[in-house]
Amino acid sequence: TSSRPLSETTIVRRKTRPVRVGHVTIGGGHPVVVQSMINEDTLDVEGSVAAIIRLHKIGCEIVRVTVPSLAHAKALSEIKQKLVETYLAVPLAADVHHNGMKIALEVAKYVEKVRINPGLYVFEKPKPNRTEYTHAEFDDIGEKIRETLEPLVVSLRDQGKAMRIGVNHGSLAERMLFTYGDTPEGMVESALEFIRICESLDFRNLVISLKASRVPVMLTAYRLMVQRMNELGMDYPLHLGVTEAGDGEYGRIKSTAGIGTLLADGIGDTIRVSLTEAPEKEIPVCYSILQALGLRKTMVEYVACPSCGRTLFNLEEVLHKVREATKHLTGLDIAVMGCIVNGPGEMADADYGYVGKQPGYISLYRGKEEIKKVPESQGVEELINLIKADDRWVDP
Ligand code: SF4
Questions:
Q1: pTM score of the predicted model
Q2: Which Gene3D superfamilies match (predicted)?
């Protein structure tokens, strides 16, 4: 049998170039960045500022806002100003949903990153018979896109700001659709076309996304993108997300299936979980995915058995109590086990263990070492005392 040291189970991330977004860096080996988007109307300056601060305080490292009109772009100048004056310079990303360059150019003055959707750069009239585009037609439109995009690219380049080329499966441009079909290939080619325009203007501060609402589609698109970038010698970081994931348990599972699968393969430098819930609900999901994969450790890792007929105490209740008492600590692993049936190894190398010993009593462990047996009623208190004695406690 072959054995593999634990250190070799760490995810090896794809090498990407660092892309600066204000004081945050995406890619280049930096921790995977967590982002989300406020759902306030950007014209509501006070409301937007409050929402941005709320999100940032709970760990949203880049906050996105939508900019559907020039008035919204101008409102962002006020939002940015207020943030700088009253709070801090949270990196902002602006979603520009139109190919209206005026909006993008205006907003590029106030935010650190502009997101554009290549699918919205449409210059052609719909083809009546869904016929394919000739090479000449294809290139001609490509040239128009280039002319339109150039001022924004130059502006972002000269300001040292970033751009996300955010392709969505649901909004591919018609000419891509007819040429490559409604496929991951079409999504990838769409991104590559915009990357080439940026590169020709010596702008490489780019992050790429290829979101879809169906997990297998987004997985294939991102993997194909990585393959194509490798072939082309490109090293742009990727922004991962499953669009329209919905809400509740399934929304979280769907997001995790898509984002987590890619992260486990070393793909992805920033993530957004899109839930049909308050944006604040997205942030813990992001951090949980990253923590579960060992990519970021921002909270206590609880190891707990599922309980069974041998369980010596109410595991659900005790786990809840232990979590409430210790969740503010970071960097610790705490195991809560109903019994020690297969030895302390089952506690997965946790720093501390709370283990059923005999009816009414539990044992506290430091690593694999049993430290003391205490009545169950004092278990949580004694666990805290042990952590304090080791100088690993901080008050909440
Ligand atoms: Fe049951 Fe003990 Fe295993 Fe928990 S650790 S599931 S109580 S055998």
A1: 0.92
A2: Dihydropteroate synthase-like, Sulfite Reductase Hemoprotein, domain 1
